[in-house]
Amino acid sequence: MGILYVVATPIGNLEDITIRAIKTLLSVPVIACEDTRHTGFLIKHIFDLYGASIANIQAPISKKKYISVRDWNEAEAKEKVLVELEYNDVALVSDAGTPLISDPGFKLVREARARGINVVPIPGASAVVTALSASGLPTNKFTFLGFLPKKWEIRPEETTVIYESPTRTDKTLAKILERYPEAQIVIASEMTKIYERIIDYETSKMRNGNEVIKGEVTILVYLKDSGRS
Fold first, then answer.
1. What is the pTM of this model?
2. What digits encode the pLDDT tens for the residues 20-42?
3. Looking at the structure, do residues 27 and 113 belong to the same domain, yes or no?
4. Which of 17, 146, 220, 226 is the most exposed place for a label (fewest CB within 10 A)?
5. Helix H or strand E segment including 64
């Protein structure tokens, strides 16, 4: 039996990758990922930067096998990965950040564990934690909703974290403020990239329609308990 490594990759800045993640990605013969081309570029990049200094590379990057695992094909793709795990170690990655966090991989990890396969996390970048750390909102307790579901609520006295695309950010903010007009909101976009923006919605131009949001967006919402003095 091989080992299934769950490997976090950068959310933007390609330097935000751990030494352990580099060693794992350069060593395993099989990588399960969303976009095989995107991940192939990442592997080549880290090999060009760090490959010469990493010992015990067992699988040359030109001979690596990539298996696409997406939301719509995960049930079928996980069987292919499980076959590989009978003989090889496999790294599971998403296009950016920590796998399974609003990304595919849950069915694969659940089945691997059920079959007694060792699942090893390789921690690293996550948009949830990155946005929280710089938001200025309370971080002692938080709820992560992923992309806003049909049924949702904001709990008082804890920060709620929501993922959104730039094209839907305005609509999602309108929904939040319609239900919770007193909420404190911070919007983080392009995190770790050149055009990183972490803005307080109350004081931003976006409220007047002049702020342009680029890239994937993380919305953080905090609601004070009106019953407390």
1. 0.91
2. 999 999 999 999 999 999 999 99
3. yes
4. 226
5. none
